[in-house]
Amino acid sequence: MLEHYVAGAVFQVWVFVVLFLIMLPAMFGLSLGVTGVYIQVLVKILEWATVRIQRGRMEQPRIIERAGGSMEEEIGELRNSFALSDAFYFYKKGLESIVDDQVTQRFSSEELASWNLLTRTNQNFRYISLRLTIIWVLGVFVRYCILFPLRITLAIIGLSWLVIGTTLVGFLPENSVKTWLSELVHLTCYRICARGLSATIRYYNKENKPQKGGICVANHTTPIDVVILANDGCYAMVGQIHGGLMGVIQRSMVRSCPHVWFERSEMKDRHAVTSRLRAHVAAKTKLPILIFPEGTCINNTSVMMFKKGSFEIGGTIYPVAIKYDPRFGDAFWNSGKYNMVSYLLRMMTSWAIVVNVWYLPPMTLQDGEDAAHFASRVKSAIAHQGGLLDLDW
After folding, report:
1. For this UniProt entry, which segments traverse the membrane (predicted)?
2. Residue 364, pLDDT score
3. Would the pTM of this model clear 0.90, i.e. be above it?
């Protein structure tokens, strides 16, 4: 009897927290300040852990340094007579150059200055002291036994409401009421999903927010970029039609909002894609298109070359710079290493998502400027604002 009473009380508390402390404030774009306090506590803990780790490094050095010396000095040490084994020296140097290549480094997780108490960074650090080990164990319990179930619950609620809400709105006739309800449903769902990731988002220069009939372009670190941007406004998504759960979500979304989904065969036809996007932009009453011109996820340190197709459509470009704080979790999606489910599980068991978003002044194609140079100019502006490395590749 006592067990049933305790279970019922726990369930009631769980429902109260999810509905009244998280979902309702999220639906109205409000914050009770709980996430802010949580982030401040995390910062204090990570600062303490950094000091403890540095002290442990001094007591037990763990750094393995690469042997110094220039290539000329090392070549001079080789024997005067050639031997087949001498080729291994150049083989080693070639591999080191490949590993240290600037482009290759952008597709691996960003290196941190110190451990953030997540096992992905350096598992050995947690054994430096007993207190640090206890903090790490408590962190595992909080992330996997409290935050993870809560985040899964919110994600299921958010996605379910997105499918149900957009499907119901889709039955309404085309008018201003349908447009308003569609934007309300999208905003509500994305805000619930963001709360499910303990996301703390800071938006700057809101006077430059993308407007209807425009094109929003941003650097791309993770699929969650869409959730981050859609928390502050609605966008028309562009992408390929998928099957399974993703396909169900896409079909329900397009019923209430003019998203631009392409069949696989259409994605290969550049002119067909461009013409559909131009038709969308020409209708000044439609939501701004959200495009990530890099075409792939980059590891939150750089901005790689923008594909010029997005800049051949015409219209006004609204650049947006996105920068994640890596101390609280690795937002980068390495699609070659993790599938979508594995990646989302990693994100839901991280500390939090802390991100800064800058809206840049709108930009247009200048006289005598082609699409490639326009894309490069927009890319440089985003990299400069976000404190990211501007790559030419």
Report:
1. 12-39, 128-146, 152-172, 343-360
2. 92
3. no
